[in-house]
Amino acid sequence: MSALPAVRGVMGYTDRVSYRPGDTVRLAVSTTAAGWRAELVRLRALAIPSAGVERRQERVGGVAAITGDGIDQRTVTGSYVRVDDLPGAGAAGLVVALAAMPTRPGADAQELLAHGRPEEGSGWAVGLDAGGRFTLRVATAAGPAEVVGPVPQAGCWYEVTAVIGGAAGGELALTVAPAGTFEANHVVRRPEPPATSRAALPGAPVPGSGPLHWACAGTDPRGAPVRPYDGRIESPVAVADATAAGSRDELARHPALLAHWDLAAAIGETGIARTALVGDAGPRGLHGTAVNHPQRAVRSSGWTGDVADFRFSPRQYAAVHFHRDDMTDCGWRFQGAVPLPADLRSGVYALELTDSDGAHDTVPVLVAPPEGTATAPLLLVLPTNSYLAYGNDHVGVDSPRTQIWSQMVPTLDDFERFRDARRELGYSLYETHADGSGVCYSSWRRPLLTMRERVYDHNAPVWQFTGDMQLVDWLDRTGRDVDVVTDHDLHAEGAGLLARYRTVLTGTHPEYPSLEILDAYERYVAAGGRLVYTGGNGMYWVTAYDPTDDQVIEIRRWGGTQAWSAEPGEYHLGFTGRQGGIWRFTGRAPQKTFGVGFVAAGNPGSSAGYRRVSTDPSVAWVFAGITGEHFGAYGVAGGAAGLEIDSAAPLLGTSPDAVVLATSVGHGDDMLEARENFNMTSRVLGGARNPRVHADLLLVPREGGGAVFSTGSIAFAGALYDLGGRTEVSRLLGNVLDRFVAGLPVLDTTV
Amino acid sequence: MALSPQDAWILDNRLKRLVTAELVAEAARPSGPCSRDLVEVMDFVRRNPDPDKPRYLIVSTPEGFAVGVRAPVRGAAPRLRDERRHATRDDAEHAVLLHRLRDYGVSW
Questions:
Q1: What share of chain A is helix, strand, coil (3-state, %, to 5)?
Q2: Cβ proximity of A157 and A99 under 8 Å
Q3: DSSP code string of A292-339
Q4: CA distance B35 to A277
Q5: B79 close contact with A: CB closer than 8 A
Q6: What is the distance between the alpha carbons of residues A576 and A574, in angstroms, rounded to a whole number?
Q7: For residues A253, A257, A261 and A262, what is the CA-based torsion angle, rounded to 10 degrees?
Q8: Which of A104, A378, A573, A700 could cross-link with A658 by S-S, CB 3.0 to 4.6 Å?
């Protein structure tokens, strides 16, 4: 077999999710070429080669191109905690105690806590050696000293106590005791007594200097964690007295206490408000800073299984989970700044990036209208949380299951090979870490290469951002003025933002709303607003923003159709404390506001068209100009009803006032019912034989003239093109938007 | 790691009986609905039941579509299975099926 050469390229990201006219866009670029150039363009359409759709864009006048020297910017992965100003061990020695739950013992040497670098002549480290054994290493004046403990069982807790004497001949001891409740441990272990390994210090300990690190030995000159750790650490204690003894609670009361990082203390009624802060309850206030979002609000060794909300028992969640592949901030150097004109129209823009070797990238720039204003009657809310959730996913290549789903072997062109090789850019929320735990954080502080025109997706020809550009394209081609905002804007501003518009459209797959976003939509329509839900499987996962950094979101997967499952008792979001999983199980099924909710998902071959079912004359205006009973059996994704589809469900909250206008018929067996919708196993899951597998096109009249029109399908936007002269779907959406914007009654009682 | 006992049974008692020259010819057709037998065969090999067997992908090259093998490490460069280039993606997809059937010792 022959190896393929690496693909060189250029890529970039900007400093914010959303901008306004007059803002400055800062750009970070990575390339091995000598230099780069970027110019601002307005994106009106992205190419969809399989449907014959061409890219349309134009350069923004009055904005000068920017250039920069090429930097091969490096991204480091791995979460850790840094604590400054910890004193080195003194003449009285030191005791360090913690509980640890390694998840990958034996996967290279790892450090749990390290102050200095014993191998370089100073400090101490408690960790795991390359064989997986617990170790305690200390630098002494006579050379390094080490004691070794047992190999832990992955996923199980241990109390680890390190004793470092203060002088030559003093004791060096490492005690490892199995710990953790039946519920907190991954497997049942044989009962074993604590194991203590002892040695005499060959020389006086050489105190560590510089910061104390959790989950690594420190960082290398590039900033990368050295000997990173996979697993959990629970509330370490450090006491400046080698004779100190007892439990960690007892050590925390010792008069020579140096520090007690009490992870339970960070938990409040609204979750963990300062996610990067690791607070020290000791006398010196040696607070730590977490880097790259190690997971918080996770079970610690004392979890008993009788509580699933960490806010109600912080001591059972006094731990942090580190992964050597965590990454929430590339930290690249920003080189360029593009001032947006004060009169720039709201819309989808991009920085068209070209390096001096000829490589290209298109970095999206999403521009909202000026603060407090609406500059169009229509508003499109781009679901940036969903872009984050799918950001940089490699599921199509990594998971054999997706080949069954898509019925295709993944195809990699040069761009996809470039993207595939950039794993350091962090995972999507559809993947798992190397230790098997689900990825629950995603960040905008990195290139999101899934938001590119050429991206391969195992789901469909276009997906998320590229799918939403179908709406941008259609609105532009049909001459409809529209403002564009993001999930982030809506979360921040709420219903007041929507209230400025006659009609609001969602994107094609707005799957990850925050509570504030759901509230905004509901308040808008309850106050007479008109909402068009132009998607499928929307408003599904409970999502929250980091309270100190809104470019990072969190989810916990359980109860839904899901790529991974949260650990038992870890269903609540650390960022807010709210129960995670799907909104349906918090009393907020999407059917309540939007009339429809997720029912099935399938590949493009299982898509279908709609059949008109409503003969109510008061809603006949929706079908004006559409003559046939069946429509929409075409489109970029094989049919207007496809990919992920939603249906009405009175049991889940669809209003009795809702009118089902049309329903999809003729799905293939690859359109499979979502797991949360059938309670027992079933032989009949596929759409060819399962009547529950259908999308409903639905109108919900609301109080005060408000209304919701829902398409119940991600693929709907792909049928807005004039493919083969079929225009019913385009005409239908136009009818709805025109009537909604005109403010005419949604139920026409004049007929 | 090899096939699980369950997959070994499925391979011997179902898959090998389903794969015929006619079924392989059906698989070579670029599109259209598949027979139930072909769906079962495709589903089996696509889920990569033996993790030690190659995990194929298709690489688009200037000369055509090549059959590649995914590296065991996430993100490492794929390798090309052979020097052959296929004129269409569908041709490469079919070539992958034939490789997979041979990997599992299926003849027809």
A1: 20, 30, 50
A2: yes
A3: S--EEEE--TT--SS---GGG-GGGG-EEEE-TT--S---PPEEEEEE
A4: 58
A5: yes
A6: 6
A7: 10
A8: A700
Dist. CA A640–CA A717, nearest whole Å = 7
Q: Which residue of A has its CA nearest to B36?
A: A669
Closest Cα in chain A, distance from residue B38 (Å): 12
Q: How many residues can be counted in chain A?
A: 751
B104 in A contact zone (CB under 8 Å): no
Helix B21-28 / helix B36-46 crossing angle, nearest 10 deg: 80
- Assess B42–A contact: CB distance below 8 Å, yes or no: yes
Q: Which residue has the tokens 């080949």?
A: A403
Q: Which residues of A are less than 8 Å from B104 in CB distance?
A: none
The backbone torsions φ and ψ at residue A207, rounded to the nearest 5 degrees and listed phi first, read -60, 150
| C-alpha to C-alpha distance for B45 and B48, rounded to whole angstroms | 5
pTM of the full structure:
0.97
The secondary element (H helix, E strand) that includes residue A741 is: helix A728-742
Q: pLDDT tens digit string along B18-49?
A: 999 999 999 998 777 789 999 999 999 999 99
Q: Which residues of A476-515 are buried (b: 16+ CB within 10 A; e: fewer)?
A: beeebebbbbbbbbbbbbbbebbbbbbbbbbbbbbbbbbb
Please report how many Cα atoms fall inside a 13 Å half-sphere around the Cα of residue A175, on the Cβ side.
17
Domain range summary for chain B, segments of one domain joined by +: 5-103
A chain contacts of residue B76, beta-carbon cutoff 8 Å: 421
Q: Which of A1, A6, A410 sits opposite B57 (nearest CB)?
A: A410
Q: Do the chains contact at B69 and A403, CB–CB below 8 Å?
A: no
